Amino acid sequence: MAEVHIVGQIVGASGFPDHSLFCKWGINTGGAWKALAGLREGQTQVDTPQQHDAAYWAHPIDIHYATKGLQGWPKIHFQVWHQDSFGRNELYGYGFCHVPTTPGMHEIECPTWRPSGSFKEQVSQYFLGGGPQLKNPDLIYSGADRYRLHTIAMGSVHVRLGVILRNFDKYGIEC
């Protein structure tokens, strides 16, 4: 089978309203893909910068896939969270990006968003924290239902990925 090896890191995030951020991430693929080695999901540490406007995580990603076709090419999805001084976690944004289809090193900036909610939910979020979240996280990277959501743009997640392709031509898969 053809193979894809994804090696890199979630560098960090910028453009969010507060500091003390961490990120939950995962990689989603189609049915023809099989993970041979590596983790398909994870979480970074909380970064609390003292003098910077960005959070730096340098969280490693290293996963090896085998596939029979291009359908369902890997996508990386993110949930960026803020942790306040009391240890409470608040969702700051969802985002996803496709893993590049060309071999080599790639710098990716993934924009994030969060559901805006009703006026009542926005007032409650301002005074009490929390806020609306997706019931089904698959909406982050899938189809038409995502476009019906009312959202607010948040910051960006910065990713550096190296993509290695193997045996694609041998198995008749053209990139």
Automatic annotation (TrEMBL):
<keyword id="KW-0966">Cell projection</keyword>
<keyword id="KW-0970">Cilium biogenesis/degradation</keyword>
<keyword id="KW-0963">Cytoplasm</keyword>
<dbReference type="GO" id="GO:0060271">
    <property type="term" value="P:cilium assembly"/>
</dbReference>
<dbReference type="Pfam" id="PF07162">
    <property type="entry name" value="B9-C2"/>
</dbReference>
<protein>
    <recommendedName>
        <fullName>B9 domain-containing protein 2</fullName>
    </recommendedName>
</protein>
<comment type="similarity">
    <text>Belongs to the B9D family.</text>
</comment>
<dbReference type="InterPro" id="IPR010796">
    <property type="entry name" value="C2_B9-type_dom"/>
</dbReference>
<dbReference type="GO" id="GO:0036038">
    <property type="term" value="C:MKS complex"/>
</dbReference>
<keyword id="KW-0206">Cytoskeleton</keyword>
